[in-house]
Design a protein that fits this description.
By secondary structure, this protein is an alpha/beta fold. The protein is built from 13 helices and 14 strands. It has helices at about 15-25, 45-50, 65-75, 90-100, 115-130, 145-155, 175, 180, 190-195, 200-215, 305-310, 325-340, 350-370, and strands spanning about 5-10, 30-40, 80-85, 105-110, 135, 160-170, 220-225, 235-245, 250-255, 265-270, 275-280, 280-290, 295-300, 375. Helix 10 (about 200-215) crosses helix 13. It starts with a strand and ends with a strand.
Length: about 375
């Protein structure tokens, strides 16, 4: 009998990038076995995709409700144990809520829900269910991000005093300037994506990363968002000022109209003894800056890194690790939690991260709509 955790997936079929990312990540540490799910809304496409990736079709279901009904009929030792939700945003909440109520562990793409109210309901549901819930803020799984977190927590750069995070993409340019396209893509439809596009899609990654690596919580924010066209209901660019405490401030710059940019996610944390810089497009390099020594460049796999960083490193030094590895580390942490093994609290983003992410999105939009004023992040 296989000891692998039985995994189900909702969404992620066809040529979905996020689908292949999750499937490969789940296979990395030999902890999961994909046994079923609902990959596509069309049943024929659903079956066809399962055959394409080599999954038996006996547990490929017509829709989500049938998935729940049929899986609960199975003995507990055969039933799917954890479900990954890779659907468009508006389906995250109803699926996650029903899965938790039915006793499943959940791995959910971000943003976790489309409203802060939904996120709070989901948190209450999880408390009653007492299962595991992870949100895939993927970049927290990179070894050198984990090294950054450990260096900050142990005081290597001293007291944090300045934070500067940038997440620039240019992918929405071909869509936003075409009136028909911007009116038809689900990313710019509030009914399917929520009240924010740019902040909700990538700004929330920046927000979570800041709190993850620093261990501090953002207290208040001031947002200036850009919608570019009057008929576009969702932001596609923005700058957000952050306050953590009286003398600790920062800025989060996020854009999907930064022409020519691919996935430029850059994190800079400065303390009174030094600074740390990390770039997602060059994820194996962590720059350590001080005023009295030359620049240091740390790389994964070396003994000088923390145990937490090394635990997320699969390859010897000099072998690049990327986005698949980062997501794989999150799945690895979830597997430890499901098996009730000891794990580092930073191994995977939790429900708290998802709830704070949704609060941040709504408060950023509120700050902009109220005239670019300071608002509290609860």
């Amino acid at each position: 009998m296989s000891k692998k955790i039985r995994l189900g997936i909702l969404g992620g079929g066809g040529d979905s990038l996020i689908g292949v990312l999750h499937r490969i990540a789940s296979s990395m540490y030999d902890s999961y076995q994909l046994v079923g799910g609902v990959f596509n809304p069309n049943y024929d496409d659903n079956i066809g995709f399962a055959e394409q990736i080599g999954i038996p079709t006996n547990r490929i279901y017509k829709d989500f409700d049938v998935f729940i009904e049929e899986e609960l009929k199975l003995p507990e030792d055969e039933r799917i144990q954890v479900v990954s939700i890779l659907t468009p945003n508006f389906l995250h909440f109803p699926m996650a809520k029903k899965l938790l109520e039915s006793g499943f562990n959940v791995i959910c793409e971000k943003p976790m829900t489309t409203t802060f109210e939904e996120a709070q309901i989901l948190q209450e549901t999880l408390e009653k269910a007492n299962t595991i819930f992870a949100v895939t803020y993927t970049y927290t799984g990179y070894p050198m991000v984990r090294q950054m977190k450990e260096m900050i927590s142990t005081g290597v750069i001293g007291k944090v005093q300045k934070i500067d995070v940038q997440y620039y993409q240019g992918w929405i340019n071909p869509i936003i300037h075409d009136k028909e396209k911007r009116a038809s893509t689900w990313r710019l439809d509030p009914e399917k994506s929520g009240i924010s596009c740019c902040v909700g899609d990538i700004g929330t990654h920046g927000f979570d990363m800041i709190e993850y690596v620093t261990g501090m919580e953002v207290k208040t924010i001031l947002a200036d968002l850009n919608y570019l066209y009057a008929d576009n209901k969702m932001d596609i660019d923005g700058t957000i000022l952050l306050r953590f405490a009286e003398n600790v401030k920062g800025v989060l710059r996020t854009s999907q109209i930064a022409t020519g940019e691919e996935n430029n996610f850059t994190v800079k944390i400065y303390g009174d003894k030094g600074g740390l810089k990390w770039e997602q497009e060059n994820p194996n390099y962590l720059h350590h800056l001080t005023e009295d020594e030359p620049l240091k460049v740390l790389k994964p796999g070396h003994a000088y890194n923390s145990a937490f960083s090394l635990d997320g490193t699969k390859l010897p030094p000099g072998h690049p690790e990327g986005i698949f590895d980062s997501m794989g580390n999150i799945y690895k942490g979830v597997a430890k939690a499901i098996r009730k093994e000891k794990y580092h609290p930073g191994e995977f983003p939790t429900m708290k991260d998802g709830v704070r992410g949704m609060n941040f999105i709504e408060r950023a939009v509120a700050s902009h709509q109220q005239g670019n004023v300071w608002v509290e992040v609860k």
